[in-house]
Every structure is written in structure tokens, then in C-alpha cells.
Design a protein that fits this description.
Strands 1, 2, 3, 4, 5, 6, 7, 8 and 9 form a nine-stranded mixed β-sheet that branches. Helices cover about 35% and strands about 20% of the residues. It has one domain (about 5-245): Alpha-Beta Complex (Spore Coat Polysaccharide Biosynthesis Protein SpsA, Chain A), CATH 3.90.550.10. The protein has about 250 residues and is an alpha/beta fold. It is globular, with a radius of gyration of 17 Å. It has helices at about 15-25, 45-50, 65-75, 95-105, 155-160, 170-185, 210-225, 235-245, and strands at about 5-10, 30-35, 55-60, 80-85, 90, 110-120, 130, 150-155, 190-200. It has eight helices and nine strands.
């Protein structure tokens, strides 16, 4: 099975080399690495061209990160699609090999796993601040959902069920997962491995304003998709995230 890895980037010269190397080092080699660049003005494009083993590159203006992700999905030729941010890396060299094995063994639409998060100052020594151990599938209404960076989905599911909705700005990944898992009940398998190492401080949690916007958009996602929204949901979601700071290896 071919895996399409989509990396959205803009002026990412400080981090993107490590992202690319984590892809190049994968033991599963049937891959393509698609870069959707927002017209970087630094050395991002040069680094991509010099280091990536199997890249496709688009560098043009876009309407936000989710519009860029949609471009990558449309450009992809793989059986499986994952989104790897330009400042994140695969947890080890065997991630894609293990994910593909699950797809083949269980004939599923999606595979999801766990992630670890490090602060910028602890990135080099890999000191983990937060661990998201997803666990087996539960209802989204209970505050459960997989971490989007550790979600691998067959391209056919995007073709059948739709792509990201950019109108949700910082929460379109949540809306897509809610739609796929809760509304269309895709068949998914949980791979209880750490799949991605992320830097702390994503767009949705970068400020109090973004946290508020994110929660509003999540509520809208429930309503738009006809899924019952319990007003205690933000509490359960917050408690699940708080636990991630206390998990031990």
C-alpha cells in the first residue's frame, strides 16, 4: 500500500528538515511526500528540494491550513493519507510499516494511535510534556477523539465522505473526524503505539481567544452533523486533556 504524507508549510526552515528526515527514514518505502507551501520566503523550498526523497511540491497562496490540506489530498496518489505538520516528526522509523500492517490485517478505513508532545526547549532532549494515549474508540460525546496527527485514513474515504471544511478555521480537523467516526461510522483500528512527536503550542491552543473559538466551532460541528451535543462536553474534553500531562511511560 502506498502512503501519501501531506505536509503544509510556510517559512518552516527551522524545523522542516527534521520532519523530512523522519519520513525518509521510514522502513516502509512506498510513500510520497507532498508539500503544500504558502509561498515561503526563507529556505524552506530549498531544504525540501535537497533532502526529500519522494516529494511533490506546490507553492502558492491558499485560504488557510485546511484549504492547503485539501489541496494535498487532491494531489495524492496513495492508498493511505496522513497529515504530518512541518514542525512534527514520526515517533520512530517503523511508524508507517506498523500502520500499513494494521490496514492489511484488519481491512479498515482508518488507523489511529498515540502521540507525545514536547515543549520547544525540551525538543532536542525529547523530554515529553504531554502524552496523548488515545485508547479504544468511544463516543465523541464523551470527550474522546483521536489525535489528528496520528490518524491515517484511506483516500477513498475522503472521496466518499468529503474533505476538510475550511470555514471551521482552527477546528476543521475535529469536524472531519466527528463526521467520519460518529456520522459515517468508518471502520477504524487503534494501534497502541506512539506514532508522532509534536511540538507544543498548536494553533488551536495558542491563545485564550483561539481556545474559545475552537470550542465554539466544536459545538457547531456537533450541530451541523446532527450529533447530540451535551453542554458538559467541554468539561469532559478538558479533563481528558488534563490527564495527558500526568501519564507516565
Amino acid at each position: 500500500m502506498k502512503v501519501s504524507i501531506i505536509t503544509v508549510c510556510f517559512n518552516s526552515e527551522l524545523t522542516i528538515q527534521e520532519t523530512i528526515e523522519s519520513v525518509n527514514n521510514q522502513t516502509h518505502k512506498n510513500i510520497e511526500h507532498i508539500f503544500i507551501d504558502g509561498r515561503s520566503t526563507d529556505n524552506t523550498l530549498r531544504i525540501i528540494s535537497e533532502i526529500s526523497n519522494s516529494c511533490k511540491v506546490i507553492s502558492e497562496n491558499d485560504n488557510g491550513i485546511y484549504d492547503a490540506m485539501n489541496k494535498g489530498i487532491l494531489l495524492s496518489e496513495g492508498d493511505i493519507i496522513c497529515i504530518l505538520n512541518s514542525d512534527d516528526v514520526f515517533f520512530d522509523d517503523f511508524v508507517l510499516e506498523n500502520v500499513v500492517k494494521v490496514f492489511k490485517m484488519h481491512d479498515v478505513d482508518a488507523v489511529y494511535g498515540n502521540i507525545v508532545m514536547c515543549s520547544e526547549k525540551d525538543w532536542v532532549n525529547k523530554k515529553v510534556t504531554r502524552k496523548w494515549v488515545t485508547g479504544t474508540q468511544k463516543s465523541f460525546t464523551n470527550g474522546w477523539h483521536p489525535p489528528h496527527p496520528a490518524l491515517f485514513v484511506k483516500k477513498t474515504k475522503y472521496q466518499e465522505l468529503g474533505m476538510f471544511k475550511p470555514k471551521y478555521r482552527i477546528s476543521a480537523d475535529f469536524e472531519l473526524m466527528l463526521r467520519f467516526f460518529e456520522v459515517y461510522k468508518i471502520k477504524a483500528s487503534y494501534l497502541n503505539f506512539f506514532l508522532v512527536r509534536m511540538r507544543m503550542g498548536g494553533t488551536s491552543t495558542r491563545s485564550i481567544k483561539n481556545i474559545i473559538i475552537g470550542n465554539i466551532n466544536i459545538r457547531k460541528s456537533f450541530f451541523e452533523n446532527g450529533v447530540t451535543y451535551n453542554y458538559t462536553y467541554p468539561f469532559f474534553r478538558a479533563m481528558n486533556k488534563l490527564k495527558q500531562y500526568f501519564l507516565q511511560f
